[in-house]
Amino acid sequence: PPHLSDRVVALQPSLTLAISARAKALQQEGRDICSLSAGEPDFNTPEFIIDATVKALRDGITRYGPAAGDPELREAIATKLSKENTVPTNAEQVLVTNGGKQAIFNLFQVILNPGDEVLIPAPYWLSYPEMARLAGAKVTTLPSTPENGFCLDLNNLEASIGPKTRLLLLNSPGNPTGRVMARKELETLADLLRDHPQILVMSDEIYEFILEEGQQHYSFSAIAPDLSNRTFIVNGFAKGWAMTGWRLGYLAGPADAVKAATALQSQSTSNVCSFAQRGALAALQGSRECVKKMVKSYNTRRELLTSGLLSLEGMSLVPPKGAFYAFPKLPPESLDSVSFCEQALENHGLAMVPGAAFGDDSCVRLTCAVSPETICDGLERLRKALKQS
Ligand code: PLP
Q1: How confident is the model at residue 16 (pLDDT cuts 50, 70, 90)?
Q2: Contacts 24+ apart (CB under 8 A), 136-145
């Protein structure tokens, strides 16, 4: 239509939303639906975070604040990054954003020029390519396969680098695969990037706490401190502290770009909800017991989902080591992922997210952040759907 901008006409509507809308419609018709399609924790936000936020409201923290975020919160985030992630950071290098999502959006807007190329390892979180295109950039995906454990193919990465390559995205623990990048892998990647000084790195660490026992999260900047002047960290409170609806995230990295992202934010959304930021501060200052408890629970349920998927005939799975998803591969003779998910929903009442949304049409994404009963019910429906396909 003539009244829409070119960039918005090109925007892909979210496949995830289409599936959940259809699942909801079927539910309203009275169908019994089992949903493994969610992308969020199934816990309520810990009580002490809510208490601190209610107190902030009562104390009158209800006005405009600095666009970059509450100074105390920026300081607490800088301290967290410096101590926990061993990435020396000061408060000027931190921007508080409306979720990790806005951190990524702002970053792309301030570092990408039209025609710049962004390298996105696939399968990827579905908003990355769309946000890169909204910044006018060209997307080059770097495919990986379940057969090689979804490992980044460094030869292919190197071969994909051209004069316009500007940014490489990393996401560990990863959505949708649950893959955790090993220290060695990050070191080798850093070596490669040392030869390409024009390439910036964005490391999305939003699932950093959600790790199988024995796994460790490494921030790319911690592995390659000499590259920290071109590495950005994106993180947030949504997944670790079960705060998806609060819209609280942050961007950290080189001060000039963070300053530019702050200017952009000051002319678009301004500060993140002032009293919600007090909740985030409480989260960072409080005990991590609540996070540990939730992680333990995801781990039990991830195991349940993983063993169930591995026992299904025809499915193959790279067992996830983090986050709360599994991304199994459909049998070779199966339908494409969108048709398979549509059929599973229509015929068996099972909602999943088609792998096509994440750049891999041979897989589907299921969550384990639901009750064990729902996982078992979902696995049974999936078994039937596979039989039929
Ligand atoms: N990055 C990844 C990999 C995600 O899966 C998500 C949420 O699904 C986000 C970033 C954004 O999180 P939020 O904007 O809710 O903080």
Answers
A1: confident
A2: 136/7, 136/112, 137/108, 137/112, 137/113, 137/166, 137/167, 138/164, 140/165, 141/359, 143/359, 143/360
| Structure-token match 């702050």, residue found | 262
Q: Do 181 and 222 contact (CB within 8 A), yes or no?
A: no
At 167, is the secondary structure helix, strand, or coil?
A: strand
**Which protein residue's CA is at the shortest distance from atom 7 of ligand 1?**
39
Q: How far is CA 66 from CA 274, 371, 384, in A?
A: 9, 40, 54
State how far Cα 31 lies from the chain centre.
Answer: 31
165's enclosing H/E stretch is strand 165-171
Give CA–CA dist 93/271, Å, rounded.
16
Q: What is the pLDDT of residues 71-94, one digit of tens each?
A: 999 999 999 999 999 999 999 999
Could you tell me the two tokens for 121?
Answer: 């390892």
CA-based nearest residue to 327, from 157, 171, 131, 104 = 171
Q: Tell me if the pTM is above 0.90.
A: yes
Counting ligand 1 atoms within 8 A of each CB, the residue from 101, 209, 237 with the most, and so the one to mutate, is 101
- Let me know: does 306 contact 277? Beta carbons within 8 Å: no
The Cα–Cα gap between 253 and 235 comes to 12
Torsion angle of the four alpha carbons 274, 278, 283, 285, in this order, in degrees rounded to the nearest 10: 140
Of 272, 289, 237, 250, which is closest to residue 87 (Cα–Cα)?
Answer: 250
Half-sphere exposure of 292 (CA within 13 A, CB side): 4
The ipTM assigned to this model is 0.99
Ligand 1 binding pocket mutation candidate from 105, 209, 239 (most atoms within 8 A of CB): 239
DSSP 112-123: --TT-EEEEESS
Closest ligand 1 atom number to CA of residue 104: 10
DSSP sequence for 214-244? T-----HHHH-GGGGGGEEEEEESTTTTT-G
Residue ranges and CATH numbers for the domains of the chain are 6-44+289-388 (3.90.1150.10), 62-285 (3.40.640.10)
Task: Give the separation between CA 102 and CA 157, rounded to whole angstroms.
Answer: 27
Neighbours of 343 (CB within 10 A): 15
Tokens describing residue 372? 């064990």
